[in-house]
Amino acid sequence: MLLRGNGIVGLWGWLTLLLVACAARASEITFELPDNAKQCFYEEIVQGTKCTLEFQVITGGHYDVDCRLEDPDGIVLYKEMKKQYDSFTFTASRNGTYKFCFSNEFSTFTHKTVYFDFQVGEDPPLFPSENRATALTQMESACVSIHEALKSVIDYQTHFRLREAQGRSRAEDLNTRVAYWSIGEAIILLVVSIGQVFLLKSFFSDKRTTTTRVGS
Fold first, then answer.
1. Which phi-psi region, left, alpha or beta, contains residue 49 (left: φ > 0; alpha: ψ -120 to 50)?
2. Which residues contact 10 (CB under 8 A, 6 or more apart)?
3. pTM
4. How far apart are alpha carbons 84 and 119 in whole angstroms?
5. Is residue 167 classed as helix, strand or coil in its secondary structure?
6. Pairing between strand 50-59 and 38-45?
7. 95-105, pLDDT tens digit by residue?
8. Nearest CA among 36, 27, 40, 34 for reference residue 102
9. Which CATH class is domain 24-124?
10. What integer pLDDT is reported at residue 9 of this predicted model?
């Protein structure tokens, strides 16, 4: 809610407006995609709306997944196989329900963690230009600049969160492999040590031969 007094907008009103504007543009989901599985999402889109689909595989296997986007008539607008990350922008040609699916059916035992951001339409202006007889005030211009900076901060935070999650997954996978390798080396070392002990023991053991005379 905007509060005006002597031409000055209340600070809490501006902060609320900025937070609502930033939250309204977010349509991000991170989900688990099991092996031999397929997950689809649906979105009602109005004709002429510009949309952008971005996705990235965070964890699992070779960090790849199949992606497919269809319009309401089932026409394939986008299709990629075994992609780690990608971005696709299109303009809706008709009204209806658009479907996009992520498939991990080519993997037999590795599940994936997939992140995607599906943006429908463009962000509305912070201050609509309709029915405005005057230019933006200094406070309004500053709020527009802050709003754009906050959007950039959100994008950077999302990017670094994904990189951190992917790096953590790789580190945990490497740590597991190192642990298994260490256990294997310990077992081999134990077996070799026991074998050496028995081998040395056989060298110093007193072998006695007994001769038996058989009468004719």
1. beta
2. 2, 3, 4
3. 0.62
4. 19
5. helix
6. unpaired
7. 999 999 999 99
8. 40
9. mainly beta
10. 39
